[in-house]
């Protein structure tokens, strides 16, 4: 450190002995890191950069003889090498940020041609199992889509997947599985119920995507049309999944099925009050205050519920007693009025 301090002091002495290279009138105070020109003030520094076009930034790769090489120069070279390593490694670490799309070329080709076929195709991230299962491709030679098709046979508890061209008729696709003679023997044995059922008594449904979580709806497809025609103007998540249903089980697919995982809300107190008699709408103040004291989510014990029921019964009995007393009082009043009228008639 002492050597560095002495070097800096010597540099200051040299600057004080030299004059400004710009104005040549004042003593030099600064030295340009790039061209080593001396200057005395900020105005001279700006004039120097304007005249010579100097950037004022030190050239970190300039040649330096060993006789002038110091510990500070060694530290500068070490930092320069570290910075170079960071710059070289940055594209590898930020590769996802520089890519134009998060999908591969094959996925983009599939999306483009699905859009041309008027199919709203949704591609999931690679971490999803449905994305990894999808084998749908676009054949450039034939210029057609080959869909990864999943067929679900709920009456036989069987599922099959296959890659089929988009121009194949849906009835022909099913015949490869349930034809009495031409289908695969193993599949024919597993789908025995479907093999024995005529093809005109089968219906094919596809789930409607992007709906509310508490509703479920299926699109009924036409067996006489191709897969391309059946998928037009529909949303497909990765690949189509078709449910083949035997006649007699189609009603649950043709109507909306509420999601069982979502509990239907209880009827509001206003609707209950409308259906209740007028005598039961007005509750004593004690019951309402007791209910208002309970916080949301608080549970009453059985003893508290029994005590409240007894209080309600007592209040109802008191109310009935008050009503009967008022009725008897009105009746007595009517009798007294009748006697008065009779007395007046007698005197007259």
Automatic annotation (TrEMBL):
Residue ranges occupied by any HIT-type domain in the UniProt entry: 20-54
InterPro entries: BCD1, BCD1_alpha/beta, Znf_HIT
Gene Ontology annotations of biological process type: box C/D snoRNP assembly; maturation of LSU-rRNA from tricistronic rRNA transcript (SSU-rRNA, 5.8S rRNA, LSU-rRNA); snoRNA localization
Domain of life: Eukaryota
A GO CC term assigned to this protein in UniProt: pre-snoRNP complex
Polar residues bias: start-end ranges: 277-292
Chain intervals with Acidic residues compositional bias: 293-314, 335-348
Keywords, ordered alphabetically: Isopeptide bond, Metal-binding, Phosphoprotein, Ribosome biogenesis, Ubl conjugation, Zinc, Zinc-finger
A Gene Ontology molecular function term of the record: zinc ion binding
Comp. bias regions, Low complexity: 260-271
Start and end residues of each stretch annotated as Disordered: 257-348
Similarity section: Belongs to the BCD1 family.
Alphabetized PANTHER family for the sequence: BOX C_D SNORNA PROTEIN 1, BOX C_D SNORNA PROTEIN 1-RELATED
Assembly behavior: Interacts with FBL, SNU13, NOP58, NUFIP1, RUVBL1, RUVBL2 and TAF9. Interacts (via HIT-type zinc finger) with the RUVBL1/RUVBL2 complex in the presence of ADP.
Function in brief: Required for box C/D snoRNAs accumulation involved in snoRNA processing, snoRNA transport to the nucleolus and ribosome biogenesis.
Protein name as catalogued: Box C/D snoRNA protein 1
Organism per entry: Pangasianodon hypophthalmus
